[in-house]
């Protein structure tokens, strides 16, 4: 019966969610890092275990990386421990200065057969080392 009924059907179709409120899996990261902005379930093909990939696009740079803030990606086992995630070393020290690129803003896992992971960045500001001083 017109646009109003189409809108009502659309709202009802979007009311579903996949959040488990009885047995939630909680992981925590540092304040201000946007830890959890992106999350992907990943199957480690070597160990055949499922892991969570968690993006923290406002994470500070790793030690040895000539930047203040790069973003980061964490890998978390599926456990009840909220603080057992570890950061993946994705930026090599000595590369060009990468500042505030929002590493980990989007994540995706290929799953079998290859088990590859896609990690994207939002912005990329490259500063020549000779002009950084």
Description:
This is Integrin alpha-2 domain-containing protein. This protein is mostly beta strands and 133 residues long. It has one domain (22-131). Helix content is 8%, strand content 28%. The protein is built from 1 helix and 8 strands, in the order αββββββββ. It has one helix at 3-13; strands at 38-44, 49-56, 72-77, 86-87, 97-99, 106-109, 117-120, 125-127. The strands form 3 sheets. Strands 1-2-3-4 form a 4-stranded antiparallel beta sheet, with no helix packed on it. The chain is globular, with a radius of gyration of 19 Å.
Salient structural properties:
disordered C terminus; integrin binding; 1 helix; 4-stranded antiparallel beta sheet; mainly beta; globular; two-stranded antiparallel ribbon; 8% helix; 133 residues; Integrin alpha-2 domain-containing protein; Integrin_alpha_N
Helices and strands in order:
Elements: H1 3-13, E1 38-44, E2 49-56, E3 72-77, E4 86-87, E5 97-99, E6 106-109, E7 117-120, E8 125-127
Antiparallel strand pairs: 1-2, 2-3, 3-4, 5-8, 6-7
Instruction: Provide the low-confidence segments as ranges.
Output: 5-16, 128-133
Mean pLDDT figure? 80
Q: Main sheet, how many strands, which sense, barrel? A: 4 strands, antiparallel
* Proportion of strand residues: 25-35%
What's the number of helices?
A: 1
SSE string, helices as H and strands as E: HEEEEEEEE
- Percent range for helical residues? under 10%
Q: Radius of gyration in whole Å, from Cα?
A: 19 Å
Rounded to the nearest angstrom, the distance between the terminal CA atoms is 67 Å
How many beta strands in the DSSP annotation?
A: 8
Q: Record the strand order, biggest sheet.
A: 1-2-3-4
| Structural domain count | 1
- Shape verdict: globular
Q: Structural class, from helix and strand content?
A: mainly beta
């Amino acid at each position: 019966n017109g646009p109003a009924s189409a809108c009502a059907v659309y709202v009802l179709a979007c009311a579903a969610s996949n959040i488990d409120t009885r047995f939630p899996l909680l992981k925590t990261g540092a304040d201000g890092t946007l830890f959890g902005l992106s999350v992907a379930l990943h199957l480690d093909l070597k160990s055949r275990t499922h892991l969570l990939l968690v993006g923290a696009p406002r994470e500070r740079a790793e030690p040895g990386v000539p930047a203040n803030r790069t973003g980061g990606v964490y890998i978390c086992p599926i456990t009840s421990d909220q603080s057992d995630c570890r950061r993946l070393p994705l930026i090599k020290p000595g590369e060009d200065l990468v500042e505030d690129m929002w590493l980990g803003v989007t994540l995706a896992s290929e799953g079998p057969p290859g088990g590859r992971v896609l990690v994207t960045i939002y912005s990329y500001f490259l500063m020549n080392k000779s002009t950084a001083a």
